[in-house]
Specification:
604 residues, alpha/beta, ABC transporter transmembrane region fold, Rossmann fold, 3 domains, four-stranded antiparallel β-sheet, 22 helices, 10% strand, elongated, transmembrane, nucleotide-binding, ATP-binding cassette, subfamily B
Length: 604
């Protein structure tokens, strides 16, 4: 069982390392593998911008030359040119959208995979302190929320920036005075957009936290166990109210996120839309000898460019706001990618071709929070010869399960060492440990898949005959055969179509299929009734034959035949010996046996 102080602690984001690159640099690094495709997008963006800028010049030639001079041939060519620019711009736009979306989705895939891979490497302690819904929210909501930004922002940024630059250059070529009038308010617009971006970034951070909280509630309360608990405790209405309260908070954050800076951005849009009137007014004031200083064609072409500048300029400002918002999501993802991995495989890790199964604990100390509080295990010195059986007994919280978790390196010792065939388990590869040590725990986990798929999780290339043999050894084959679809029967969410004893026997069959030389039984029968325990114990006996077995015992009747029994108290070994030896001493073990007998007699 996990200690109370571990359950009480909650995961908090790690402090940012000053040597860690800034978020913007890290985001740019995500696109580095796709430089060639992005370069092609840049070329297409440049061509599209040049083509779109050419159209106003063709329009000026039509208004100032072709129509006034009656040159129908030139008029036809210029009109055809305007149509061709529109077609070319559309084709370039489709191609750049295709490439940029593909790159964005690949980056999303890389992020999801990187976060999942990092979480797979985290120690068991991380998951005991972190709500499952929080983990799911990071992968689903946070990365999903970045999709639009990752897939389109880079292209939009380059496209709009190129269009703005090209439009400004073309406007200067037409008339520098009107250009100055058009760009007078641009610095103010940029300042407004930056303020809006910072505000939305702050709101986005709070919104994602709230979404994570809602995801955690859904995961916990709408699981099979959560539904059973809620209904049997009469708390369904209360849970619904709690969810509604969290959803209400999210509504407020969503509205604030949507409306943040909306009036300021609307003012920018109004001013930009009013610019043509300002330009016509300015052109009218620049009369020279009774005639406009700017030709009608130039003025119309300039207004067309200015309106063409309006769309990418506003989009560029909006993109800047979106980037600020997305930085909040990237920060949450980078928090997970920066998680320190406590248990790692050493570069020179060894493999064992043949594992005998000799396990030894050499003056082992362990603490869940090193440097704070009393250690969970202290000075454990213990040898389990290959092929022998060890039973670990003691009161709840004495450190029994923790001791067993050190062998497969679910946790690392904080003092001393644990060896397998004389080699420190920290010096072995993860694959070697996974092949050598099998664990059957009290809480059996089954996937929402068929019986065969659940068994094959231990050995993906197992044949049907091997699966059947493992099920027969675990005394579950007959029950599976009576199911409507046999081994193809879905087990249901977390195996709820099966009883506790049946799930335990499926877990035993899965372990038999893997055939580990060292077996950890972590209170595998403590939650079962006496008859079911007897059936499961027979399956365990078949599994344990010829293996090094470490049994964490709750019911002492299951460990009387163990070669060695140790009694833990407050993380220390206080007694050791065989069942008969320990009874003769009339110490802690004898007291536990008497208590066990009394409980069995009274049926408590």
């Amino acid at each position: 069982m996990r200690p109370e102080h571990e359950l009480a602690s909650r995961w908090t984001p790690p402090k940012k390392n000053p040597d860690t690159p800034t978020d913007v640099r890290r985001i740019l690094r995500l696109f580095r593998p796709y430089r060639a495709r992005l370069a092609l997008v840049g070329v297409l963006v440049g061509l599209s911008s040049l083509v779109s800028v050419a159209s106003p010049f063709l329009l000026r030639a039509i208004l100032d030359t072709a129509i006034p001079q009656g040159r129908t041939g030139l008029l036809s060519l210029l009109a055809l040119g305007m149509i061709a620019t529109a077609v070319a711009s559309g084709v370039f736009g489709v191609l750049q959208t295709l490439i940029s979306t593909t790159v964005g989705q690949r980056v999303m895939h890389d992020l999801r995979t990187a976060v999942y891979e990092r979480l797979q490497r985290m120690s068991l302690a991380f998951f005991t302190r972190t709500r499952t819904g929080e983990v799911q929210s990071r992968i689903a909501n946070d990365i999903g929320g970045m999709q639009a930004t990752v897939t389109s922002t880079a292209t939009s940024l380059v496209s709009n920036l190129t269009a703005v630059v090209a439009s400004v250059v073309a406007m200067l070529a037409l008339d520098w005075r009107l250009t100055i009038v058009s760009l007078l308010l641009l610095p103010v617009f940029v300042w407004i957009a930056r303020r809006v971006g910072r505000e939305r970034k702050r709101i986005a951070t709070n919104r994602q936290r709230q979404m994570a909280a809602m995801s955690a509630i859904v995961t916990e309360s709408l699981s099979v166990s959560g539904i059973l608990l809620g209904r049997t405790m009469g708390r369904s209405d209360s849970l619904t109210r709690d969810f509604a309260d969290e959803s209400e908070r999210l509504v407020d954050l969503e509205v604030r996120s949507s409306m943040s800076g909306r009036w300021r951005m609307a003012i920018i849009g109004i001013v930009m839309s009013a610019m043509p009137a300002l330009l016509y007014w300015a052109a009218g004031l620049t009369m020279s000898n009774g005639a406009p200083a700017v030709s009608i064609g130039t003025l119309v072409a300039f207004v067309s460019l200015q309106q063409g500048l309006f769309r990418p300029a506003v989009s560029l400002l909006s993109t800047g706001v979106d980037v600020q918002t997305s930085l909040a999501l990237f920060q949450r993802i980078f928090e997970y990618l920066d998680l320190p991995v406590d248990i790692t495989e050493r570069p020179d890790a060894r493999t064992l071709d043949t594992v005998r199964g000799d396990v030894r604990f050499e003056h082992v100390d362990f603490s869940y929070e090193p440097g704070s509080g009393e250690p969970t295990l202290r000075d454990i010195d213990l040898t389990v010869p290959a092929g022998s059986s060890l039973a670990v007994v003691g009161a709840t919280g004495s450190g029994k399960s923790t001791l067993s978790y050190l062998v497969p390196r679910l946790y690392d010792v904080t003092g001393g060492r644990v060896t397998l065939d004389g080699t420190d388990v920290r010096d072995l590869t993860f694959d070697t440990l996974a092949d050598a040590v099998g664990v059957v725990s009290q809480e059996t986990y089954l996937f929402h898949a068929s019986v065969a798929e659940n068994l094959r999780f231990a050995k993906p290339d197992a044949t049907d005959d091997e699966i059947r043999a493992a099920a027969e050894a675990a005394q579950i084959h007959d029950h599976i055969s009576r199911l409507p679809d046999g081994y193809d029967t879905l087990v249901g969410e977390r195996g709820y179509r099966f009883s506790g004893g049946e799930k335990q026997r499926l877990a035993i069959a899965r372990t038999i299929l893997r055939d580990p030389p060292v077996l950890i039984l972590d209170e595998a029968t403590s939650a079962l009734d006496t008859r079911t325990e007897h059936d499961v114990q027979e399956a365990i006996d078949a599994l344990s034959a010829g293996r090094t077995t470490i049994t964490i015992a709750h019911r002492l009747s299951t460990v009387r035949d163990a070669d060695q029994i140790v009694v833990l108290d407050a993380g220390r070994i206080v007694e050791r010996g065989t069942h008969d030896d320990l009874l003769a001493r009339d110490g802690r073990y004898a007291a536990l046996v008497r208590r066990d007998s009394q409980l069995a007699t009274t049926g408590s």
